[in-house]
C-alpha cells in the first residue's frame, strides 16, 4: 500500500493529518481547506473484459482510460451547456483506525481551536452521534469524507462539501440528505471530465491554397473519429460507470464573413460512419456535402478556419443505470490561404 495525499474540502471539519507538518504555527478558529489522506493500492491496474489495463488512481476513484482518445493533439471536450461535472463529492476515505490516528494528531497539535476540538471529539468519540470512531465496526464499513475534483480546487462549488465525515455500513447507501455522495451518475460525470478526443483539423481540397469562388471540400479522417470512453470506479464499493463520447457532427466556421458554407448552416452531420466526403478528381465544379466557398482573397495572409466536432455523451453503469449527459465540443483553427484566380489575356 502507498499513501496518496488528495485535496479535500473540510469546512467546519477536518482531518488535517498533515497540518502539524505543513502549518506548525497556524492558529485558526475555523479549519479551512487542507490535505487529507487515503489508502490506495500501489498497483493501479484493473481487469476489463479479462485483460489487465492501465488505470490511474485519484483518491478513492480509479479511472480506466484504455479506450480514451490519445496523442498530442487530443483534448478535453467542453459541454455545449453551462453544465459541469461536480467540483466535490463524498466517498469512502477512512477506516475507524485510520480516522482515529488522523484526528488524534490534529487534536494534539496547536492548530485547532478548543471549540472545534470539542465539537469533533463529541462527533467522533463521545456519542454525538458516534462513539470511539466506530471501532467496534472495523471491517464493516468506512468513514466517508469530501474529495475535491482535480483542477477544481479554486472553484467556489468545491466549498459545498463541508459536512463532517459520516459513517456508512458496507452495502448500505449513503444518507439521503447528502446530495454530493458518490453515485453511478456522479461517477459518469467525473469520467466525462476525463474524456479526450482527437484534434479536429480537417482535410481540405484544394489542399494548399484554395481559390476565390471555388468550392473547397472538407472532411475528417474517420479512422480517428471513433467513439471513445472512460470508466470511473470506486473499487471499495464495487461501483463503476462508463462514459462514452461519439462524434455526431462537424461545424465549419470560415474565419471571415466573405464566405458561404456547405451546408448553409455549416453543420456537417455524420453519415455512413464519416464526416464529409473526400474530394475525388472531376468534382471541382460540384457542391461539396461539407465545405466552404470563399468570396474574397485572403491577400498576403490567411483565414482562420475553425472546425469543431460535436460529441454525443452517454453513460452506463454496473447498477444498470445510465443515460445521456450534455453534448461536448472540441475544435481547432487552421490557416486557409485564398487566392484570386489569375486570368491571362492574349
Automatic annotation (TrEMBL):
Residues 1-29 form the signal peptide. Keywords: Signal. This is Enoyl reductase. It comes from Streptomyces thinghirensis.
